[in-house]
Amino acid sequence: MSVTTWLAIDTATDIASVAVGRRQGAGPVASDSGAHVQGARRHAAEIVRLIDFALGRIGVAARDLDGIVVGDGPGSFTGLRIGWAAAKGLAQETGLEFVAVPSLLAAAAGAAVRLGAVPIAACFDALRGDVYGALYVVHPDRVETLVPPTTTTLDAFARASPVVPALVVGDGATRYSDAALKWSGMPAVPLGSLPPLATMLLSLFSRPGAARVIEDVLTAEPVYGRPAEAQAKWEARHGRPLPDSSRPAR
What we know:
Elements: E1 3-10, E2 15-24, E3 29-38, H1 43-57, E4 67-71, H2 77-94, E5 97-101, H3 103-115, E6 119-127, E7 130-138, E8 143-152, H4 154-160, E9 167-169, H5 171-175, H6 177-184, H7 197-204, E10 212-213, H8 229-238
Parallel strand pairs: 1-4, 4-5, 6-9
Antiparallel strand pairs: 1-2, 2-3, 5-10, 6-7, 7-8
């Protein structure tokens, strides 16, 4: 049975993480090495070092990889661009397989390691009083999405949820901890108490319902959740969408 080596990158939150693991046949990837750094301002400076460190721990080079799985957001606009730029650069250079898994799903799966296949809500801080939220049941052989990633308030998320989650995790949950406790009856779980998101990406991407395969690496983009602050201000000032520089002018 063939063994392939995969790299995972997640930069959707304040904690950037990288992991490398090996996959036997069509099974899940077992993480062999990983690294992470906290502080969104450090992502750009540290992402290449984290990748080199994770690869070096198991003695492989980028040319030895078979695929990359990247956190699909939603989350920090700048953070996601940094992680995706690194992943896309490696994929384009070497022709690797490229898949994306929601970063919110990776957070929920981190809690599911201990709780099993129960509803888990993941919430990242979206600023302006909002969260990026989603609700999942992570089964051993598949992922069930009860509420797909959305931008909302935690209170509104709770009101619209089809079930009461066993737990609410993420920096959005801890920022609005009273609302998270009221919703689930359990204290919010911070990201730092969960396995690194990149490690969970490796365990998830082969499960049905978890990933999207990126066919065109050059034009692919993550799910940001909302426009960058600068884009939002430009559109508010001009009263129209910001022109897409990737499209030819008319």
